[in-house]
Prior knowledge:
The complex is a heterodimer. Chain A is α/β, with parallel strands linked by helices. Chain A has one domain: Udp-n-acetylmuramoylalanyl-d-glutamate--2,6- Diaminopimelate Ligase, Chain: A, domain 1. Chain A contains five helices and five strands. In chain A, strands 1-5-4-3-2 form a five-stranded mixed β-sheet, sandwiched between helices. In chain A, helix 3 (54-62) runs parallel beside helix 4. Chain A is globular, with a radius of gyration of 13 Å. By secondary structure, chain B is an alpha/beta fold. Chain B folds into three domains: 2-152, Heat Shock Protein 90, CATH 3.30.565.10; 215-445, no CATH class; 476-529, 3-methyladenine DNA Glycosylase II, Chain A, domain 3 (Orthogonal Bundle). Chain B contains 21 helices and 15 strands. In chain B, the strands form five sheets. In chain B, strands 1-2-3-5-4 form a five-stranded antiparallel β-sheet, with helices on one face. A four-stranded parallel β-sheet of chain B has the order 11-10-12-13, with helices on both faces. A two-stranded antiparallel ribbon of chain B has the order 6-9. In chain B, helix 10 (247-256) links the parallel strand 10 and strand 11 (261-264). The longest helix of chain B is centred in the N-terminal third of the chain and has 21 residues, at 34-54.
Amino acid sequence: MKIAELARAIEARLILPGGKDRPEIARIHGAETMSDLIANAAADTLLITPLANNQLIRVADLMDVPGICLVDGGVPDEALVAQARATGVAVLITRADLQTTCARAIACLSAKKAAGKAARP
Amino acid sequence: MITLSYPIAGGDFDSAGLATRKLKEQLARLGVDASAMRRAMIASYEAEMNVVIHARTGTLWARLDADKLDLEVADEGPGIPDVELAMREGWSTAPERARQMGFGAGLGLPNIRKASDLFQIETRVGRGTRIRSTILFHDGEAGPAEASLASGAFRPALGVDDGRCRGCRRCVFICPTGALRLRDRRPTLLDHLCVGCTACIEECPDGVFSIAADAEPNAGALRNVPQGALLIAPRGFVVGFPGFRPPELILSGLRQIGFSEVRFLEEWEESLRRESRHETAAGKLPRPRIPPLCPPVVSLIESRFPALMPHLVPCLSPSEAACEEFPLRPVFLAAACPGQYSACARSSLTERLTVATPAALANAVLPLLNSRRADGELPAVRVPRANPAGPRGLAASGVRSVLRLLSRAETGALADVSVLELHLCVGGCSASPLLTSNPELNGFRWTVKHSGEPPAAARRNRPYEQREGLRLDPDMTEAIRKLAQIDSMTHSLPGRDCGSCGSPSCAAFAEDVVMRRAAEGDCPFMENAR
């Protein structure tokens, strides 16, 4: 699923589109700790977290994550955005909390998957 | 093979993760596959964050081989008082600042362990922590690579220059594990039996044996000793140079080639002795407690006397402890035996620690000694007062004494001895035949005064492991058949253990024949009987 498409579906604002060659989102992982995030991050994973700090971008970059979504209405500072731009990580923000956002994203991804299956004969 | 290193600054949350970032760039250039990369990044990042959160300063090393990636992160910091607790998920001592950033969930070390195929942690309270993580590139079918890791730990570092051999067979008889054979007038080493002692080195009149050539540092390492480098050597190293050269002159020469400090192995021997003497500190170990003073003795127990493994004091051997004592300084070790070499070489990545043979070090120092005199200013030297064995302790050295005592201890006959101190070299590490010395002169020429307290003993984090001998056959039924064959053949041999066949005993020869390492005709008596 394209990251902009997912952003609309989960009512998040895409404040920074990621690098063009990043793969589409196939799964999401929401967590409140860095260790949880890094252990579950992959090249097709959107990370959803309230942790709006530069280490989040570092983790995303190390694990080749295509995008991150900051929840709870957290506003990333300029340094974070600059770092994300430099590394090609897409940034989403939303007022909703972690649980709600994850629930929306999962619903949307599975709907898409089901649609994909139905489309194929 | 390539080794990379990156510094890590403790407490610096802004640049945290940069070392791992740089490592990633290099690994990507070298074409590491995605799965291995992912695991490497998790292990490296978590280890780096541990340094940033808890320690003052640290370094990340990465060594890349064709089949695996070794990561090592060492720091100078508070250490971990209870490793078992720290390995538990959810346990953390991270400060508030780190927690606010999403760290301190108590998942860091468990994450590293999960990402690694081989995980080790060494830590000393008040000094620092060293984490090693190995990532194999072919997971799933990890068989051969796994095996190479396991056997790598025990690859004997004994070098055999068989061109010098005149076939006297003394080595065959002296080897405490019967690891040597003479075949076609050439000594052959059975790798799985060698414990890395110096028995054959000392016994051989022709200089066939030494520390393996690949154990020598490359020639440049001793010409460009890095700044602040420290040399750890048995005391005998500075005493036993050829000709009359007082220790002060040798120390001065060592300083000239760039060592800022020389520390003697005896310091850590002494701390290990003290640790072993107290029941409380050493835990409830059965008597006699055996301190791991001599790595070959430990190997010997792990292979030939596994029943005595519970008697081994769970501390690092003096040479390992000495190398661990200075986690971030470049350390050189003059290894007194092949066993010491392999114990230390396997405990760390190569860059920080250089294990050198005493001969290589002596060759670097000797040219400087002819032209100059001792210039008075000596490298720092600390030698704690030695107190061998202690009350109810028994110290012994030399292959024959050690074998005799271990056999007795195995039957429970030494329960009245509280501490059993064993060295396979007669007279201990300082008297090793690899230190170009007359051991008799060690005490006589030693003029440096005793000073200083020994450092604290270093606990082992890994348990002792029984060393598997070579199995007779991978198939159990076949192995039993071979064992019966060996048994019946042993009985048909003359039983003189004369060694004419090149094996140390008739039983060993029978095994050699069954395992196709020798032909039946090699026994002159069997040949005549026909």
